[in-house]
Amino acid sequence: MSTTHTKKALWTAAAGLAAGGAAAVAQRSRARRTAPADTDRWLAVTVNRGPGDIQPDKLPAPLQEYGERIETRIRPAPGDRGTELAVRLKEPQPEAAHSVTARIAGDDPRQDLRRALREAKSLLEAGEVMRPDTPPTTHDTPGGKLVGLLSRRASGEGVL
Amino acid sequence: MKALCWEGVNKLSVEQVPDPELRGDQDVIVRLVAGTTCGSDLHLIGGYIPAMRAGDVIGHEFLGEVVEVGSAVRKHKVGDRVVVCSFVGCGRCWYCANDLWSLCDNTNTNPGIGEAMFGAATGGIFGYSHAMGGLRGSHAEYVRVPFADYGAFKVPEGVDDTSALFVSDSVPTGWMGADLAGVKPGDVVAVWGCGAVGQMAARAAMLLGAERVISIDRLPERLEMTERHIGSEVIDYTATDVEAELRERTGGRGPDVCIEAVGMEAHGDTPMHVYDQVKQQLRLQTDRPTAVRQAIRACRKGGTVFVLGVFGGAVDKFPLGAVVNKGLTLRGAQMHGQRYIPMLLDRVAAGELGTSHLATHSVSLDEAPRAYEMFKKKTDGCVRAVIRPGG
Questions:
Q1: Residue B343 and residue B87 in contact, taking contact as beta carbons nearer than 8 Å
Q2: What is the pTM of this model?
Q3: Cβ–Cβ of A141/B54 closer than 8 Å?
Q4: Among A116, A153, B174, B378, which is disulfide-ready with A62 (CB 3.0 to 4.6 Å)?
Q5: DSSP string covering B17-48, please?
Q6: Do A138 and B15 touch (CB under 8 A)?
Q7: ipTM above 0.90?
Q8: What CATH code would you report for B2-169+335-388?
Q9: For chain A, how big is the Rg over CA atoms in Å?
């Protein structure tokens, strides 16, 4: 791949992702002025199952493994949309645990919880968690490594 | 196995990659019989879709034979000839259950990327970047199909491979545009773009009862193909003022429904197109909405504009004032194929929906990079090149 092409690919990936990321960060910054800190927020999904199908003591393995370390909130979603399942860590986390560097390094504990919540939803709805093909690529470039890093963090990040 | 890989902006090559493996109990492995170039591939080949990685296998519109079946698959067995929907749906989340399959909650393996870009993740699509699921594409000898009971459809006896191939993506995409735009008997429908999706949207509008359908493009061979095989009226936008022409043909009202089947790399012959090109190249906007703007201006008061072309980010000079002040309904969607494919296969089998004319070229996998070059430059009358890994 030529240098020009590499730069263009990197620029394109960075521009698209940065725009979305900047919007999300800006929104969070504005929200912080009045809302609870992100660290206190429930992580929530809506599961397309009846409330009776989701019991706090019978959650799928990815959440069950957290045991007493998480709080769980389960309630019916309005309008026949299933059941809202929300979780959060009981133990307060230091601010540094949620820093940008911690998130890039994959050390933010909410990333693992977010991933576990997504997997629990998939297991409850579809019976399995869809996995990507492996290996993700047969060779790498600087731009590809960046996308690879984003992909590794992607199931633990996002607006959920 | 051999596969067509994205290696960088405007660079494709055929390479050796590992064979796919079953990764879930609901997966099947399909041996490719035929796949096809799609206009939306050009956006990612050209670097306009972020989160591509060198070595990514592209391709999402395909047909093949089931060669391996996961333990929880119920509908398929080895040897089935199947057409596979380009979007993967789990079949059981709220979106799939409500026939909004491209919005599936459980098939994008990188949901955080989509959420950062759009505020919510789409479902996964074969071979269409790590933002759209990170799934390996279908321009290969074999492909893994997750949740195959929901996304793979047995092709009826009597329907040939080439006709069935386009029911994977371009036919349901076109049909969905006309359907979700609410086309009804008596409507006048205008369709921007005479590629495969635009042609299928025009045909769908007719089958849904439209009184008149008018297709717009600039390429003589595509206009001629649309007129001959689809039976719609046509407008060459390089030869006339499209808005004036549409007003004249519709008694001054404008079309009731306008379907945009062009996408983020629209062409045009106005100063606005030059403006869009410059802004896109400078990355001051990600997409060129030239056709969308025209559709919004041309649409009759109170009408519907459906954006069927692929857009990935932000556009400039969007005529929101026209949407509000003309009371338009503006909709868009990626393709909810599972909702339509069984019905469309039946229509193809019944001879109501011709698709084989779209296959203007047929190539081997080794020739695929050249086919995409031809497809991109629209040389030799290429509308769709069919890639046959088995030769």
A1: no
A2: 0.90
A3: yes
A4: A116
A5: -PPP---STT-EEEEEEEEE--HHHHHHHTT-
A6: yes
A7: yes
A8: 3.90.180.10
A9: 18
